[in-house]
Amino acid sequence: MSARPLPRRRGPLVGVAVAAVACLVLSACTSNEPEDSGDNETTASTVSSNDDTGDTVTIGFSGPAADHGWLAAINSSAQEAAEKYDDIELKFAEGTNDPSAQIAQVETFINDGVDAIVLLPTDGAALTETAIQAMEAGIPVINVDREFSSPFAARTTVLGDNYGMGVSAGTYACGLIEDNDISDPVIAEIAGIDALPLTQDRSQGFADALEACDQEVDRRVAAEFTVESGEEVAANLLQAEDKIDIIWNHDDDQGVGVKAAFDAAERDEFAFIGGAGSCNAMDWIEAGEMEATVIYPPTQAADGIKLARLIAQGKGLSDLVQVEVPKRVVLNAPVVSADNVAEYRDLCFDS
């Protein structure tokens, strides 16, 4: 299957919502070389290299069961980040989708007196009270991806930008329509689990971006973030629509099934845009079988580990004037196309 040749959108997208710090990989924000600070002790921490070995800190990490490519990448990226530092001792709990088991893991971290906890909760609301207990015990909690229901449960929260993913995908779609002078385009959307706020945010961002170029989604279906569901709903979509110009699929893991349905139906008249940034998606982009994908960073837990280390060592981000780590970090949602796929290849994950 070869995708219809379309002019590539060059340059950065405009209008992507990014809050707090927009570094995709925070290592770029924490590796300034030391500068001469004279005798002023109050400025020493803001100009020293944060990657230099400091006091050893023990960080507890609890994440999800690795039953999805992106989730597996979350766990492995946390371990890989910790291994880069001689001053991190990582206590890595077995991944779980059971909130009760994860609560027990966090309670163990508290009893062990770790210096910080990085937590991607199976259920943010269910883990909130236990996270508050850690904070009250003087252990900073770094909340990743799924938010707690209380601001008192985390010292810092690291998030991907679900709404921004939709905005990026929609803005890119508008560019394709303009560049190819497509009149009355048929735009389809393959969402994930509709009941999840993250799916709703992605769809809202997509709709808002399309509205900016006077377009709307003509056909929307929802899958379940699995290969099987992706293939089923994509096959049904193709049967229902004889002609489609652009399809945005929210998730590159379910995209394996979506792509299989496209191949089986021998349909390639549309521009296929994905979401998350899997290695499969980047392979398809390089092969001309996919137009683009929108990154939802699998580095969030790795960034959480790096921030936990800085917080536990009393440091801030060296590229910021502010001397403390921000309370909230929302990562960017860039579009990866044939023009820049090489830049993002190292961040892809297996699906």
Automatic annotation (TrEMBL):
Q: Where is this region: Disordered?
A: 31-57
Which residues belong to the signal peptide in this entry? 1-27
Q: Which residues form the Periplasmic binding protein domain?
A: 59-315
Q: Where is the composition biased (Polar residues)?
A: 40-51
**Residue ranges the record marks as coiled coil:** none
The alphabetized UniProt keywords are: Signal
Q: Which family does it belong to?
A: Belongs to the bacterial solute-binding protein 2 family.
Major localisation:
other
Q: Which GO terms describe its molecular function?
A: carbohydrate binding
Q: What is this protein called?
A: Ribose transport system substrate-binding protein
Report the InterPro entries cross-referenced here: Peripla_BP_I, SBP_2_dom
Q: Enumerate the subcellular locations listed in this protein's record, separating them with semicolons.
A: Cell envelope
